[in-house]
Design a protein that fits this description.
Number of helices: 11
Strand order of the largest sheet: 6-7-8-3-9-10
Oligomer: single chain
Bound molecules: adenosine-5'-triphosphate
Helix content: 25-40%
């Protein structure tokens, strides 16, 4: 099933505070979406709505034209992976995995067992005795093997160490290629995960600040690298968001799409022009003093 998700003017309020404020999003297609936002931006609130854990105070969420909330058929198509507290889970990993699979119509047990081997998950250990990282792995295995048309990972990798996260990203990309589906990954590890995303969504203070294909986002600015004095001269007057210096070499990130004339001048001066990074753009756009609007 291809899932087209339409979030229309959705708000969630806690007393007078808007955790989500008139959020509209169209997620159409079997893509991997990166959901980025600073602490408290509203990511988990939005993802909980998509998992039908709660109903918005205002607005609607539809999947393939049907309202999502408490729609049993649609809810079966969604897997929401979030950091769980496993301290009460005394059953063995294999029992827990089997039970998880029973609720998921597309669960692939063979793939789950392949992942168990890849990640060295001890099948006979009680879940609450696994290390925090291994509990994250168990969660991720269920998320991947569920093969749900809408698969949501809410910061579910924070317990994993770097090599384990790398294996998880690899598995996610490979399995998404084999079984395309809508995947939404929320993260603070932007520079580590940006290559996974086809589209980036930046939430800020409960509003959508940006939702675009990552390749379009990366063209919003440029990095200029070369001899420090030449770089300084080139970027003078541009909107500079990040500077790095190593010996006589300097790299400056600017948020100004470069003109043909500027590109030619850079080439004459042997300056290297690269894309802006999603992380730098995210940091820049969510700074307190930035006027929003990225065009
Ligand atoms: N039950 C609640 N009662 C009151 N305020 C809440 C409640 N749940 C969330 N909030 C507030 O809503 C805002 C959004 O929270 P949310 O957990 O969605 O942010 P987040 O982007 O996932 O943050 P983080 O990256 O820190 O996990 C925060 O200011 C939070 O304090």
């Amino acid at each position: 099933m291809t899932a087209n998700i339409l979030v229309d003017q959705v708000s969630v309020k806690y007393k007078k505070f808007h955790a989500l404020d008139q959020v509209s999003l169209k997620l159409d297609g079997e893509k991997i979406y990166g959901l980025i936002g600073r602490n408290g931006a509203g990511k988990t609130t939005l993802l909980s709505l998509l998992a039908s854990f709660a109903e918005p105070d205002e607005g609607t969420i539809k999947v393939n034209g049907q309202p999502l909330f408490e729609n049993a058929e649609l809810m079966q198509q969604v897997t929401f992976v979030y950091e769980k507290d496993f301290k009460e889970e005394s059953e063995k990993v294999k029992t827990y995995l089997k039970a998880a699979g029973e609720y998921k119509p597309d669960f692939d047990t063979e793939y789950a067992m392949e992942l168990v081997e890849i990640f060295n998950l001890p099948l006979n250990k009680p879940v609450h005795k696994l290390s925090k990282g291994m509990q994250s792995v168990l969660n991720a295995v269920i998320g991947l093997a569920s093969r749900s048309p809408i698969t949501i990972f809410d910061e579910a990798y924070s317990g994993m160490d770097a090599p384990t996260r790398e294996i998880f990203y690899q598995q996610l990309l490979e399995d998404h290629a084999r079984h395309p589906r809508t995947m939404i990954l929320s993260t603070h590890l932007v520079s580590e995960m940006d290559y996974l995303f086809e589209e980036a969504i930046i939430l800020h203070k409960g509003k959508v600040l940006l939702h675009e294909p990552v390749d379009v986002v990366l063209e919003k600015g440029a990095s200029v690298t070369g001899a420090a004095d030449l770089v300084d001269d080139f970027v003078e007057g541009m909107n500079q968001i990040h500077t790095q210096k190593l010996g006589g070499t300097k790299s400056v990130m600017v948020i100004d799409p470069l003109t043909e004339e500027q590109l030619a001048r850079a080439s004459q001066k042997e300056l290297e022009i690269g894309p802006v990074s999603l992380q730098d753009l995210f940091i820049h756009l969510t700074k307190e003093d930035v006027q929003h609007g990225t065009k």
